[in-house]
Amino acid sequence: MHITVFSAQPYDQRFFEQTCHTQFADSDLHFTYQASALGMKTLALAAGSQAVCVFVNDVLDAPVLEGLYEQGVRAIVLRCAGFNNVDLKVAERLGMYVARVPAYSPEAVAEHAVALIQTLNRRIHRAYNRVREGNFQLDGLLGMTLHGKTVGIVGTGKIGLALARIMKGFGCRVLGYDPCPQEDFNRLGELVDLPTLLADSDIVSLHCPLLPATEHLIDADALAAMKPGAMLINTSRGGLIDTPAVVSALKMRHLGALAIDVYEQESGIFFKDHSDDIIDDDVLQRLVTFPNVLVTGHQGFFTREALSEIAEVTLGNLCAYQAGTDNPNALVAASHR
Ligand code: NAI
After folding, report:
1. Of 5, 15, 77, which Cα lies nearest the Cα of 37?
2. Which GO terms describe its molecular function (predicted)?
3. Strands 75-78 and 293-295
């Protein structure tokens, strides 16, 4: 089977080839790697493939799915957990198989959230630059002791639970909001409604998926409901936050600090080097001028362990498709083969 891998980075290729060689040596999987993201303009790159492998910013809406189908593509494997970029209803209508990697080291994302919290809190980003310039002054680097502070976790699934475990270890009071909470959370913290979580938390961290119901969950009203000076962390999906409203809350000095690993308009910007370009996104450019804002480029998942797991599960998803076996990772089962 031929598979075109879109939005492929050198590390994707490295981990895929390594895993294919060591764990799937008997399989009949042949990969072509394309650096371009999948969209209407790049559809033709999938010609001759029976499957495509995509990532978070590839667009698989109705016209793209229909175009892929016309070219003979019958399977879509996502090398991520979130699937908000795929029109599953259309895939189902076309009988296309869609599978994802439901979890790859949830701890990797939770640990990145903690790295963001402590970098912002203890001003490590500023301290690093100061010391390199020979400036050892502490003024402007004042942080807070996390022990005893309240951390609100929105979405208590795999990543939310991992973060709850870590923050409990810091001695924090942990609050969680989730319409379908997991029982495990009760051992770590207290489940509350969203207004209570926003009002009581010193740090709010988002770990729910992007769905129509969660789009702009953090809007101007939610920001106003947060504790003055609180910190907001988003390692989930950019669309959970109304970014211009966040910029206003920062300018009003109501929101104390912001760290984002994901951004609503990240597609076309993240995962690429723009250091020699002019970035035409004024909201993102404004965000990075704040001393109390930290932006990372969707690297929460980026650990060796997670990349190995992504490659292993994705290749397994392709083999399950080929073999026609039931696969719990399938979002849409194949109906044409
Ligand atoms: P999960 O499916 O285990 O947990 C998500 C939780 O959110 C579930 O418990 C669900 O009930 C809850 N939820 C649904 N609607 C909600 C709402 N309206 N309010 C609050 N909670 C709600 O997913 P997991 O593995 O914990 O991942 C969470 C998100 O993290 C993914 O959807 C993905 O967007 C993001 N992610 C980001 C990565 C990165 O590199 N930055 C890597 C992997 C995932």
Report:
1. 5
2. D-lactate dehydrogenase (NAD+) activity; NAD binding
3. unpaired
Phi/psi at 102 (nearest 5 deg)? -65, -30
Fold assignment, 2-104+303-332 = Rossmann fold (3.40.50)
Pocket of ligand 1 (CB under 6 A): 81-82, 103, 106, 109, 154-160, 177-180, 207-210, 213-214, 235-237, 261-262, 298, 300-301
Among 107, 266, 309, 312, the active-site one is 266
Catalytic residue (one of 237, 264, 309, 312): 237
Any catalytic annotation for residue 216? no
* Domain regions of the chain by residue span: 2-104+303-332, 106-295
CB 230 within 8 A of CB 246: no
| Amino acid sitting at position 286 | R
Residue reference for tokens 């019958």: 74
Give the separation between CA 152 and CA 154, rounded to whole angstroms. Answer: 6
Whether 106-295 and 2-104+303-332 are alike in CATH topology: the answer is yes
Render each residue's pLDDT in the chain as its tens digit; 337 residues. 999 999 999 999 999 999 999 999 999 999 999 999 999 999 999 999 999 999 999 999 999 999 999 999 999 999 999 899 999 999 999 999 999 999 889 999 999 999 999 999 999 999 999 999 999 999 999 999 999 999 999 999 999 999 999 999 999 999 999 999 988 999 999 999 999 999 999 999 999 999 999 999 999 999 999 999 999 999 999 999 999 999 999 999 999 999 999 999 999 899 999 999 999 999 999 999 999 999 999 999 999 999 999 999 999 999 999 999 999 999 999 885 5
Which residue's CA is the nearest one to ligand 1's atom 1?
157
